[in-house]
Write the structure tokens for this entry.
Amino acid sequence: MTHAEDPDRPAQQVVPVLIVGAGPVGLAAACALHRRGVPARIVEAAAEPNRGSRAVQLHPPTLQIFRELGVLDEAEKLGLKVRATNYHLASGRRLRVELGSENEPLMLPQEQTSRLLEEALERLGGRVERSVRVVDVSESDGRVSVKVESPEGTELITADWLIAADGVRSHVRSRLGIEFVGEQVPAHFLLAEGRISGDFEPEAVHYFLGHTGSIVFAAMPQGRVRISGAVPPGYPLTAEGVQQLLDERGPGHLRILELDTVNEFSSQERIAATLRSGRCFLIGDAAHTHSPLGGQGLNLGLQDAHNLSWKLAGVVNGTLRPAILDSYEPERLQAAAQIVRTTHRFLRVFTLGPAAARLRNSAWSALEATGVLRRWFVPLLAGWRVRYPDVLSEPQVARRSAQGLPAPGTRPPRRLAEALAAAEFRLLTLGPANHGVVQRGRDLGVLHSDLLTHRHIQQPGVGFVLVRPDGYVAASGTTPAEFEQAQRLLARITA
């Protein structure tokens, strides 16, 4: 007799949040919810954690999440910081782009990322339930029912909310009937990891943009490198094949010493038709997938978890109104669409034919000479240029960007972000000490003392910035009317 059929079994306790999938994205969501006092249950179909490097590049906005979850220090000990990106053109010219500390990613194998997050979850009192496979999902009476199978039998889990983080082939997405819209990427890639000899800059990602094809290799922790390039179907997945790729497209003096792994992969460009179905949410690869060039995928998924967790925790804990959850889908759909467009363009640039490659390399040189690569492209790949539609402001209010202040849906510049201590909502006021906006900021801080911290910076210009728990701007402005709008925004979303 199964758990669900046992008449003597005690009534099932309702779980506040059930997370399906214990990859890095599901684990990050579980950690964030536990940190906010929500005991999320997390189940995983696989019997053991995934092994292998898989997604390795963690961008600075993701590292901010790691800091919040208490795993950044250990991640930085295990990982390798990338200080520069080198674009090697067929002419022999090298375009070296210093990333700067605000844009430097951390190279860390995904198995290490998962381990750190799972250990953090256990410290917070949670645990992953493995070998638990979702069979069916349904919603009724304001709750979600999830039928699962495990070595102990069949169980029906009842949850107030469900988060699907179960990957590209998401069974939850399928059971919910959500279409995964998009298509297969035509390019076919080789991916190898191991050790090489030769003169190359460590702590850098190298793009060799040749006339006959491109290749990328990046240093990884413990003296290893990752090598990848588009190859025709049937290309030999051997050390000799990888060496040939390096000889034909690389600098010509690199030698394979040993390979830990070599395989091939293709990718898709797809985004779920909806990221929410009633009380069910999609995050990570269950919500979107795209070309891995630029290392955006895991970062995009972790930002999904970051966006959703503070909203859902606030609703579960009774500090935020349920309507705040309506903002998850439009915000993360826009972010996913932006990243898919970016990686699609990057893929096209990376796989051009000989004639177009010559034009690309000339254009790339011009972008470097004018500083566009450093000022625009680097922050784009780092994840700082992802922005949200302003769905929290009053619909009838025509928004304008106050000069020098970040607009709603963007991230505050570093000089302002550093002035705002980590908290839930953070209010920064700017101007003379006796200005009315400052007093209003103090009053607002007292009114929402459990949710909001206030700091003032004395300066000639007047203004304010209200920042959400996920680091995005909720409101900004310079006038009393705009400040009143921010007050009403807080009143609308807080319980």
